[in-house]
Amino acid sequence: MEYDYDLYVLGAGSGGVRASRMAASYGARVAVAESTYLGGTCVNVGCVPKKLFVYGSHFHEDFEDANAYGWQVEASGFDWPTLRDNKTAEIQRLNGIYGSLLSNAGVDLHEGRATLVDEHTVSINGHQHTAKYILVATGSWPTVPEFPGNEHVITSNEAFYMPQLPKRAVVVGGGYIAVEFAGIFAGLGVETIQLYRGPLFLRGFDDSVREFVKDEIVKKGVDLRFNINVERIELDGDIRVVHLTDGSTLNADVVLYATGRHPNTADLGLENAGVQLGERQQILVDEYYQTNVPNIYAIGDVTDRIQLTPVAIEEGMCIANNLFTERPKRTLNYDNIATAVFCQPNIGTVGLTEVAAVELHGGDLDIYESSFKPMKHTLSGRDERTYMKMIVRRSDDVVVGIHMVGPDGGEIIQGMAVAMVAGATKAQFDATVGIHPTAAEELVTLREKSREA
Questions:
Q1: Cβ distance 354 to 437 under 8 Å?
Q2: How far is CA 80 from the centre of its chain?
Q3: Is 390 inside any structural domain?
Q4: Which of 102, 114, 295, 430 has the fewest CB atoms within 10 Å, i.e. the most exposed one?
């Protein structure tokens, strides 16, 4: 059968765009459909604008610290519309780049909501297109739970475009998005309270990191409240009156819910093609991203595995390689994927947490830790500390986990991830000459183990 396209991609986020471009470069006829914005969550309402906001929110500390270095600097005030609109201009620039990348690669861009008619047919804007292969890369969407007054909250999507900066904000959630936005608000001078229903936030990260970050975030002025949740929200004029499960109330100008994201699979017509979904409505795939329907594939957040932009991009590369080249089939190795949380100070992490390492290698582990004041603050006097942790498998000296909290944590851990992917041992770290004076050199000078596990 002759199809209109060799590959039809639903979703022009980072993964979908990469799969489209690479498939086209291999000679495939490719179309991609996008109903919202080019670049997906990361470019528009995720990693990129979030980090720009983090930069903006940190300047107040830089101004304060400058005095200790002889600079007579005083911030005259902060203008929210300037940050917001400069961010939006940068996002629009990136949207244009994504459009050009697709066009230059010879990929047809269809703007609108595409749905599956059957396993080889897509409908969009009243037209139908057939394809040999279909790739679903529609990402994820913020989840807001059902409770009275939930219509009075915003999510991270809206936080990037608020008409004015609130004086008081309540952030609900314990994941990295909640932690990052609490830090952004507090850094911009907003009276910020973060609520989390559990005993400690950032579940899934190393416990030592979680505890350390908690203390550092409190120093930054965020009012952290654990083991508590929202019961209902009522409006009093423009004020959100937040009723909590302990019977108390909070007044806020903005309530931001960052309580997770769900796979964006609704109303795609997946049932028309017989695509199987999991309990969270994620698309179920095998190790090569193939669904139960042989010609339909899925990558990225819509599969609800590791929700990271670089992961979706690499999965897109695998799809293009596997479907349109004669090379050996590829899949992504999900071990030792580094990640960062842009709270303040940053978290950088790669490899196993201590809990996971104990489950796998219990009794065969050496734990190395260090906590210190960054050199910058020996003059500024700021009460901020950096933490580093290395987990080593004693029997073969292989480093199985590295975690840190401190400025530029993501930048430092990226290099550590290369070493871990290469299978570096503690002896090789010890044999590496450090760059002095830096925080990163601490990772090659950890000599005294703190404990065995």
A1: no
A2: 24
A3: yes
A4: 430
Q: Does one domain contain both 268 and 123? A: yes
pLDDT score of 406 more than 90: yes
pLDDT band at 251 (very low <50, low <70, confident <90, very high): very high
pTM of the model: 0.96
Q: Which two tokens stand for residue 179?
A: 């932690």
Name the DSSP class of 67.
Answer: G
* Catalytic residue annotation: 436
Q: How many residues does the chain have?
A: 453
pLDDT tens readout for residues 298-341? 999 999 999 999 999 999 999 999 999 999 999 999 999 999 99
- pLDDT (tens digit per residue) in 265-276: 999 999 999 999
Same domain, 24 and 129: yes
Q: What range does the domain containing 345 cover?
A: 339-452
Residues 33 and 126 in one domain: yes
Does residue 268 sit in the same domain as residue 391? Answer: no
Sign of CA dihedral 184, 413, 407, 203: positive
Spatial neighbors of 231 by CB under 8 A, at least 6 apart, are: 147, 148, 243, 244, 245
Which run of H or E residues covers position 391? Answer: strand 386-393
Query: 239-267 burial string, b = 16+ CB within 10 Å, else e?
Result: ebbbbbeeeeebebbbbbbbbbbbbbbee
Q: Domain check: are 132 and 274 in the same one?
A: yes
- Which residue from 106, 133, 98, 96 is spatially nearest to 25, judged by alpha carbons? 106
Dump pLDDT digits (tens) for 132-159: 999 999 999 999 999 999 999 999 999 9
- List of residues 6+ apart from 267 with CB closer than 8 A: 113, 115
Same domain membership, residue 345 and residue 249: no
Q: Count of CB atoms within 10 A of residue 421's CB?
A: 15
SS3 content of the chain, % helix, strand, coil (to 5): 35, 25, 40
**Which residues sit opposite 365 in a β-bridge?**
393
Cross-strand partners of 110: 33
Identify whether 122 is part of a domain: yes
User: Is residue 333 assigned to a domain?
Assistant: no
Query: In the chain, how many domains are there?
Result: 3
**For residue 330, is it within any domain?**
no
Does the pLDDT of residue 74 top 90, yes or no? no
Return the structure tokens found at 36: 């919202």
Alpha-carbon span 181 to 165, nearest angstrom? 13
Task: Compute the distance between CA of residue 292 and CA of residue 274 in angstroms, rounded to an integer.
Answer: 8
